[in-house]
Every structure is written in C-alpha cells, then in structure tokens.
C-alpha cells in the first residue's frame, strides 16, 4: 500500500481508550479509521441478508462519532465467503448489518477490495 502512496499505521490499543479502531489510514491527504474483524461464518447472499458484527462496547459509538465529524470510518469484516466494508455513518442496531444498505459494500477477496 505504501507503494501506492497510502500511509497505514496500526494502532496498538491495549492502553488506549475504548473503541479506538485498529488502523489509521491516510490516502492522498484523505484520513480514515478502520476497524478489522474476522467472522467465521458466511455472508448470506440474499436480498434481506443480515450479519452480526462483533463490535465491542464503545467501538460503534467511537467510529460513528468520528465519522459524523467528517473523517470516514469503516469496519472491514472478513467472512468465509467474502469481505464487507461497512461505513459508520450510522449506528447499527444490535450490531446487525443489512448487507443491502447504502454504506455496505461486498468484495469477493482482498484484491478486489484494494483495487
């Protein structure tokens, strides 16, 4: 990613505040925060399909609060059958994400996500 001019900093959050995401990314002067999740399940590929993201208490609030202030925040959730990129321009009730909602994007693999 650095070869593409993208700055990525892993955040070690053992002693930092609750909700701080895993990565800070700066792409061509555009900052963003990214939370990473691995979910050992399949994304239901149906029109009404939903997934539950295991956000810890405080994570969604932190991400949504920062996103509301103009810095884009995403969760990148890797499933057995693909990847979801979820924007935090809203709070996801009970951590459930409807895969057809605006702000939710499906990618078949990491190469497609990074393209």
**Gyration radius from CA atoms, angstroms:** 14 Å
- What is the CATH domain class? Alpha Beta
Helix content: 10-25%
Structural class: mainly beta
Unreliable residue runs:
none
How many domains make up the coordinates?
A: 1
Beta content comes to 35-45%
Quickly give the CATH architecture.
Answer: 3-Layer(aba) Sandwich
Distance between the termini: 11 Å
Q: Largest sheet, if any? A: 6 strands, mixed
| Spatial strand order of the main sheet | 1-2-3-5-6-8
Summed up, the helix count is 2
Total number of strands: 8
What is the CATH topology descriptor? Answer: Trna Endonuclease, Chain: A, domain 1
Order of helices and strands: EEEEHEEEEH
Indicate the mean pLDDT: 90
- C-alpha geometry: globular
Task: Please tell me about this protein's structure.
13% of the residues lie in helices and 37% in strands. With 115 residues, it is mostly beta strands. The strands form two sheets. It has a six-stranded mixed beta sheet. Strands 4-7 form a two-stranded antiparallel ribbon. A hairpin with a 2-residue loop joins strand 5 and strand 6. It is globular, with a radius of gyration of 14 Å. The model has no long low-confidence stretch (mean pLDDT 90).
Supply database-style keywords.
mainly beta, 6-stranded mixed sheet, 2 helices, Trna Endonuclease, Chain: A, domain 1, 115 residues
How is the topology of this model organized?
Elements: E1 6-10, E2 23-27, E3 30-38, E4 50-52, H1 59-68, E5 72-79, E6 82-87, E7 96-98, E8 104-107, H2 110-114
Parallel strand pairs: 3-5
Antiparallel strand pairs: 1-2, 2-3, 4-7, 5-6, 6-8
